[in-house]
Specification:
mainly alpha; disordered N terminus; 3-stranded antiparallel beta sheet; about 10% strand; transmembrane; 3-stranded mixed beta sheet; di-copper center containing domain from catechol oxidase; about 525 residues; 14 strands
Length: about 525
Amino acid sequence: MSLFAMGFLLVVLQPSTGQFPRACANTPSLLRKECCPRWDGDGSPCGELSRRGSCQNILLSQAPLGPQFPFSGVDDREDWPSVFYNRTCKCEGNFMGFSCGECKFGFSGRNCTERRLRTRRNIFQLTTSEKDKFLAYLNLAKNTPSQDYVIATGTYAQMNNGSNPMFRNINVYDLFVWMHYYASRDTLLGGSSVWRDIDFAHEAPGFLPWHRVFLLMWEREIQKITGDENFTIPYWDWRDAEDCVVCTDEYMGGRHPTNPNLLSPASFFFSWQVICTRSEEYNSQQALCNATSEGPILRNPGNNDKSRTPRLPSSAEVEFCLSLTQYESGSMDKMANYSFRNTLEGFADPRTAISNISQSGLHNALHIYMNGSMSQVQGSANDPIFVLHHAFVDSIFERWLRRHRPMLEVYPAANAPIGHNRENYMVPFIPLYRNGEFFKPSRELGYDYEYLQEPALDSFQEFLTPYLEQARQIWGWLVGAAVIGGIVTAVLTGLILACWKKRRGTASEIQPLLTESEDYNNMCYQSNF
C-alpha cells in the first residue's frame, strides 16, 4: 500500500477522542462557535443524511455549583465547551464522535449495533509477546501525530475571541498528557495572579468518571492507530507490593545505574521527553502549555517523603474503602469525610475515611511513591505507569459499583465543585460527555477486568439488577401495602365466611325441591357468594 493511501486511511479511520477537533480549529468555526464536522461516510455535517446525528445547540446544566471557585467568566473551561463552541454534533442511537462517525463504547459494526466486551488484564498475566506488543504500542503512540486533533496554545482571549486561532499539532500519546494537564491546570487571572483551587478532573465527584472516560478514549486511540481492535489497557495490581515491581527494563523501565532519578538506558522509555510539567512557568507567563519537550521522564520510586506516604497501599485499605456506602459527602471536595471517592482518591485516611490532606493514601499514594514525573498532578500522565495505575483504580471503582449498585441519583446533581455536577460536560473532551454518563458498570461501556469476571453469576445478577433496584426504591411502600392488604383480606374473609354459614343454614329451610331438568341444570351455576 502506498504512503499516500496509508495516510488517507489514517485520516478517515481515526477515532473521535480528545480536545479540539482539527476540523473545528479555525477562524470560521470559532467565530460561528460551531463544531459540526462532516462525516466522511456521506459528506453531511454530523452524518445527518445517514441519520447518525445533527448539529444542535449545546444544553448546559443550570445546577448550582459549590463555593470553591468564586469567579465567573474568567476561565475558558467554565460551562465547557461554550466559550469555544455552543453548537456541536448530537449523535443518535449508538453513534458517537465529534462527527458521529464512531460507535459508542461497547458497540461496533457498520451501524454500531453489535455489542462488544473486551477484558483488561493484569500486566503480569500477559505473555512475553503480549507485553512487548503493549510496550511497542506505547512507543508508536509517542511517535504518531494525531490526525484528528490539535491542542490550544492560547486562551480564547489570547486568540482574540477566535479571530486568531492558536493551535498546534501533537502526537497521540502527548495529546492525552496535554488533556490531563488542561483539565487540572490553574486559572489564569491576569498579571501574575492565578487561582489554584480548581480542577476539573480531581478532588471532587468527577474524579472517577473523568479518568474512566480518559482511559476509554486512550484505549480506543491505540486500537485505531495499531489496527488492533482487541487491545485493552493492562493494569498493575499494586496492593501489598513491597516496591515498584513494574519498574524494570522488562516492563516500564528500571533505574538508571548512575542517576537514580532517571530511567535505565535499556528501557523502552529512556528517550521519552515530557511535556506540561512547568506549571509555575506557565502561570508567571499567563500562558498554556504548548507541548514543548521539557526533558526526560523522572522517577525514583520509594525515595519519597515517608512521613506523607510510608508505603504502597494494602489490600485491607482497599477493602475498607470498598465498604464505604456513600459515593460522595459533605463539601464534595478533598475535605469530604466518609466519601468513597475521596478515600479512593487518597485525601481521606484509608483506615478511617476521615479527610487528612497531610497524608496521601490509595490513588495518591502511588503517585507520591513514584517520586518524579508521576508526582506532579498536571504532568503525571507523562509516565506510562500512569495508565497501568489508573486502570487498577478504575477496577476498584468498578468493584464499588457492583457491590453497592447505586442509582444514578447517587452522583451529585448540584453544589459540587465547578465542572463536577452530574450534568456538567467533562473538560476538555470533544465529543461531549457528562459526568453522570460514566457512573455505571463497565460492562455497559464494553469492558471488564479479568480478576472481576464471574460470568454465570454476574449475568444472572445483571438480569435481576434493574428489578431489584426498583424494588429497593419502593420497599417501604411494598411493606405498607402488604400490611394493609393483609388486614383487608382478613376482614373480607371473615365477612364472607360469616355470610356463607348464615346462607347455608337457611337454604335448606326455604329452598324448594327442584325436580324439573331445566331447574336442575340452572342450579349448577348458582353461587352463595
